[in-house]
């Protein structure tokens, strides 16, 4: 059992719950209910920062292109981008498929939620600044270039489901050894592990805060593995991160949002 913070729909503050991940059960104030009964909002409050090319396989997939113009070398520092407020989505809510787009990339990412203002933190102390971890789907319209800000592809409304909760840092003793799995309609489509990160969690936090401050409530994504699976209209996407949680969403055509969905 792990302890987590969740923001139930219609509430202003987060609640503390106990989660039995293997059993799919949540306990709150002596009552038990299943994951399917969850009606929650995204549990984060600050800015969400994504990280590109932090999985070894994602960088290797570029091949010799990484040595071509404009940079002519592998990245020497973290490559960051923002998932703005309009992208924030939550567990069990629809992901809208834009008109004219056949499928979306499902970007399974471990989210590091900041618990203390972090500026120039050392790698040795970096995890002390972490409040906890959450599951993130860094949704994108498929695109090739990593050299231009992919705003049209990554910053659409609802393109960043987060949740269902934030597990406390202590519950994940080895954040650099957790497995991520993506299921589409119940079929396992991707599996990877944070052991394949170029910059492990503490190193990533140290390198990012060397040039920018992360504040309480901000979320830093460790990155998305190579070969992100594609999902089409009607597909049910389930992302599991070992010891952290399960995030599930359905792809819905933009013109036909599900009841209670994004508008």
Annotation keywords:
263 residues; mainly beta; Fumarylacetoacetate hydrolase, domain 2; 5-stranded mixed sheet; 3 helices
Could you describe the 3D structure shown?
By secondary structure, the protein is mainly beta. It has a single domain, classed as Fumarylacetoacetase-like, C-terminal domain (Fumarylacetoacetate hydrolase, domain 2), CATH 3.90.850.10. Helices cover 7% and strands 37% of the residues. The chain has 3 helices and 19 strands. The chain has helices spanning 56-60, 151-154, 201-209, and strands at 2-8, 15-20, 25-28, 31-34, 40-41, 48-52, 79-83, 88-90, 95-97, 104-105, 108-114, 130-137, 160-168, 179-184, 187-193, 219-221, 230-231, 236-241, 245-253. Strands 1, 2, 3, 4, 5, 6, 7, 8, 11, 12, 13 and 16 form a 12-stranded mixed sheet that branches. Strands 9-19-18-14-15 form a 5-stranded mixed sheet, with no helix packed on it. The chain is globular, with a radius of gyration of 18 Å. It starts with a strand and ends in a 10-residue tail after the last strand. 41% of the residues are buried. This is 4-hydroxyphenylacetate isomerase. It comes from Pseudobacillus wudalianchiensis. One of its GO terms (molecular function) is 5-oxopent-3-ene-1,2,5-tricarboxylate decarboxylase activity. Residues 47-252 form the Fumarylacetoacetase-like C-terminal domain. Keywords: Isomerase, Metal-binding.
């Amino acid at each position: 059992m792990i302890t987590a913070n969740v923001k139930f729909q219609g509430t202003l503050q987060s609640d503390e719950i106990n989660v039995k991940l293997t059993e799919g059960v949540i306990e709150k104030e002596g009552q038990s209910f299943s994951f399917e009964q969850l009606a929650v909002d995204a549990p984060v409050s600050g800015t969400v920062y994504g990280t590109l090319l932090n999985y070894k396989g994602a960088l290797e997939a570029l091949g010799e292109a990484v040595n071509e113009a404009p940079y002519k070398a592998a990245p020497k520092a973290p490559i960051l981008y923002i998932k703005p407020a309009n992208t924030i989505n939550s567990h069990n809510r629809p992901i809208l498929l834009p008109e004219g787009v056949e499928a979306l990339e499902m970007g399974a990412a471990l989210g590091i939620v900041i618990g203390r203002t972090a500026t120039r933190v050392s790698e040795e102390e970096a995890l002390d600044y972490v409040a906890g971890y959450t599951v993130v789907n860094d949704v994108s319209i498929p695109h090739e270039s990593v050299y231009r800000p992919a705003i049209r592809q990554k910053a659409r409304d609802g393109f960043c489901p987060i949740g269902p909760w934030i597990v406390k840092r202590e519950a994940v003793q080895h954040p650099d050894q957790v497995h991520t799995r993506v299921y589409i309609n119940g079929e396992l489509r991707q599996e990877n592990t944070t052991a394949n990160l170029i910059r492990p969690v503490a190193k990533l936090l140290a390198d990012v805060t060397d040039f920018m401050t992360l504040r309480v409530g901000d979320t830093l994504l460790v990155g998305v593995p190579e070969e992100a699976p594609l999902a089409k209209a009607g597909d049910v996407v389930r992302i599991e991160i070992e010891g952290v949680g399960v995030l599930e969403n359905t792809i819905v055509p933009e013109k036909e949002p599900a009841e209670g969905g994004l508008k």
